[in-house]
Amino acid sequence: MTDQAALIIVDMQNVFLQQAQDLIVPVQEVARQWNESDIYWLKYRNHPKSLYEEHLSWSAAIVSPEIDLIEGKGQKQTYTHYGYSPPLEMIRDLQNKDYKTAYICGVDSDACVYAAMMSLWDHNIRPILLEDCCASSGGQTYHDAAIALMHRQFGMKSVIKGLPQ
């Protein structure tokens, strides 16, 4: 059994960082301070005729360079997801390594980050958001709404500023 917590870095990809460039350095710094074997990267990939394309008129994030991740430590454990939530393969890996807690950072706080928090919770892994390392490409209003929902759904201590103590 491990006392370590996982770090999950969500969708730090070119396509999502146009409004969140200032997240790159803080996320890279968090990863530098984490044990490499405890870091998990999520990478979103869209596809033709997806629900995003058909119902949201959004057809980005299909090919490089849009889907490329920023540089960062621990990318050997990168999982691609095709919807909002992380793939079950990643969740199973976290469970098999007996993580009880996972810290989350990245974009979008109101979409894939929030979905990752929900999925972890539903699989009995406590999610904690590193708020200083999250943003929404939709802007501050969506980010603030996501933070309010996370407080309600996971408790006030589920969202922290700075690094865990």
Overview of the molecule:
This protein is of the alpha/beta class and 165 residues long. It has a single domain (6-160), classed as Rossmann fold. 31% of the residues lie in helices and 21% in strands. The chain has five helices and six strands, in the order E-H-E-H-E-H-E-H-E-H-E. A six-stranded parallel sheet has the order 3-2-1-4-5-6, with helices on both faces. It is globular, with a radius of gyration of 15 Å. The mean pLDDT is 94.
Kindly list the characteristics that best describe this protein.
6 strands, 165 residues, Rossmann fold, six-stranded parallel sheet, 21% strand, alpha/beta, globular
Q: How many domain regions?
A: 1
Low-confidence stretches: none
Give the terminus-to-terminus CA distance.
20 Å
User: Average pLDDT across residues?
Assistant: 94
Topology of helices and strands:
Layout: E1 6-10, H1 24-33, E2 39-44, H2 51-56, E3 78-81, H3 88-96, E4 101-107, H4 112-122, E5 126-135, H5 140-154, E6 159-160
Parallel strand pairs: 1-2, 1-4, 2-3, 4-5, 5-6
In short:
The protein is an alpha/beta fold. The protein has helices at residues 24-33, 51-56, 88-96, 112-122, 140-154, and strands at 6-10, 39-44, 78-81, 101-107, 126-135, 159-160. Helices cover 31% and strands 21% of the residues.
